[in-house]
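Reading group handout, session on sequence-to-structure problems. Before we discuss, look at one worked example. The prompt was deliberately terse, the way you'd type it at a terminal:

> structure Response regulatory domain-containing protein

The input record follows.
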Amino acid sequence: MTIQKTQYSILIVDDDDDNLQVAAKIISNAGLRALIASDGESALEIIDTLIPDAILLDVMMPGMSGIELCQKIKTRPDCSMVPVIFLSAVGEDSEIEKGLLLGGSDYITKPFRERVLLARLRLHIEKGLYLKEIAEKNQELVSKNYQLVELQNQLLTANDALEKQINKNLEIFAAMNDKIRNPLAVALAMIDITEDTNSQKIIEQLNRIDKAVDDLDKGFMDSDKIRSFLKKHYNID
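And the output record:
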């Protein structure tokens, strides 16, 4: 039967049926949902159907021990933040230590007291929910940071293309300017050696053209973007 999550669910794993029933009653009376399993394989089947909010796990069980089950649970990405609280008898300290090193969150000695059991469960459920929220927020920040990096790369690419286009336009303008000025200079030099009236008129006309080219040059250089580009790349004010 498929288990539907309607409230906080606690998975209890113990091979002792009496312990299962006592723990399940305490949890149910507290308004939590009790899921029970008498061995490790049954517990894994339940987890495949529903990820519990916390797990109460007996340390010593036949077949798959509680320590082995804890290790299997903690290797699953979807269970990495689920708190595992060991239920242990007196004298199982070395096994408890192994379990805690493998990712267990806490332990309670049997026979356990109701108030202590519920207090530990409440503490670790709240902690687990808090850690889950932090992980989700962190993932959201990682995603937004990735988007910002992509946007920055796009802006850098666009800026590089703009600078290349400005540089190309400058080269075109410089070539055009040379083509205009060189013939004017030659013409002025040739005509300047003559003194007839027609030559003087031609010189005046060429001077007006030369002044127009100067005005065009100055107008081009008044562009804020061009001035900024020249200042940055060529140190020209």
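Points for discussion. First: The chain has two domains: 9-112, 145-234. Second: The domain at 9-112 is CATH 3.40.50.2300 (Rossmann fold).
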